[in-house]
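DNA-binding protein: structure, please.
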Amino acid sequence: MDAILSDWLLERLDTDAPEPAYRQLFRLLQQAILSGRLAAGAKLPSSRTLGADLAIARNTVIQVYEQLLVEGYVETQSGSGTYVADTSPDRVDEGSAGAPRRAVRDRHRLSARGKRTIELSGVSKQQWGAFMPGVPDVTEFPLKAWTRLQSRIWRNPKPELMTYAPGGGYRPLRRALADHLRVARSANCQPEQIVITTGIHQSVDLAVRLLCDVGDQVWIEEPCYWGLRGILLSSGLKLTPIPVDGEGINPDAKHLARPPRLIICTPSHQYPLGMVMSLARRRMLLEYARQHNCWIIEDDYDSEFRFGIRPLASLQGLDTNGQVIYLSSFSKTLFPGMRVGYMAVPAPLADLFSLGLAELYREGQLMQQAVLAEFIDEGYLNSHIRRMRGLYAERRSLLIAAVQRRFGDALPVMGDEAGLHLVLGLPHLRDDWAVCRTAMERGIIARPLSAYYSVAKAAQVGLLLGYGCVPNEKIGPAFDTLADVIEEVSKAGRKTRRSVA
Ligand SMILES: Cc1ncc(COP(=O)(O)O)c(C=O)c1O
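Here you go.
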């Protein structure tokens, strides 16, 4: 319990934040108690243990415990320690005098799927810096061109661009995206099939709400993007993790015997391991989906950044039966905070998806969509992608060189032919979380590869390292800091194993 609590707190405490450690720790413990994460009666770690685990002064922990005591969140028992108090609200008398106290308390707690969503959450409290995966270099965004187009549109805004969006989004942007997809991804699509969303997260949410019922089975890749799991679980779907091999998602006979409602995959660049789905595997998947009437969601999150290898056409472009829902996003090509993505849906679903989008989310942002349409039409998107591809290729080489300088070929580098991150295998370690925690204390973000697996015993150990948002000159020094951590954790691991033996 102590270790779990310490890990949870460590992931959230930010020693660089302006908010003092005392306030942060108080707020986090308060939140843990109110949300039920720390149940009534649970014993808190001693101030000495918690201080040491969090690398903060023991006095800070004592001060926080005292404040929690004053405010009624904890109780002390002399000589025995500090315990979480029962903070459930007083019962409101609704004529159910005999109703158990717990039932009242439960109304204030999360739903089962809400709890699972929060428990499995993978979002990092820091979203910028070496080696944050999946984040592009937003400082390179062509601001001048964007501002010029934006001023033009804002100088004389049309009222219809300032109201809610009609289903599907701004028509000229849908046309520009359909043209782009046909050329860049060999997709088969017309502007009516394009639905503009706030990103892949929303696109997946919309697709599962419209196509799946609670309890439906969904195949996800093993490992896969953590964000998908949250969306699917919170929609009450049953996830079947399907292992990937060198050719992408690889269902075995047992899986094939139980067709899912939906298959979600990353054919252009498996996330996070980086392989490209082979043509044979693509054809197998399409044929299987056709025979069993399954939908396939193609998450094409970063196919624009490919180094030395030619992109395969999209899976959607091979689909002759209208079963693929193609998703893309501007989070990697422009900047994630823009929150614009789009889907290309099979023609018979197009109007339904546009309507569903407007109905569920009451979309807007048409002014931004108008700017984006002009940005694409005037060629800025393509030239920005071309320029960034060169920059990312350089950063990728610098990171690989830094890995080789420190470790030679001892640590495998995977998935480095495309995208904004690579995977550094740590086959000699058992705990990639330990590396990430210590690295975070030294200002380096690395995500543990094992966290992307749904089945713990299948998990490979390693690190996801994003190079997209790291300036060239910082890559070597930042990797050296990380390499020190890897070596320290490796040594500590060896000692622990020896002492256990
Ligand atoms: C595989 C994958 N899909 C989807 C997303 C999220 O896309 P968006 O920002 O468009 O919601 C990410 C973000 O890193 C990702 O890695």
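Notes: DSSP finds 18 helices and 14 strands in the chain.
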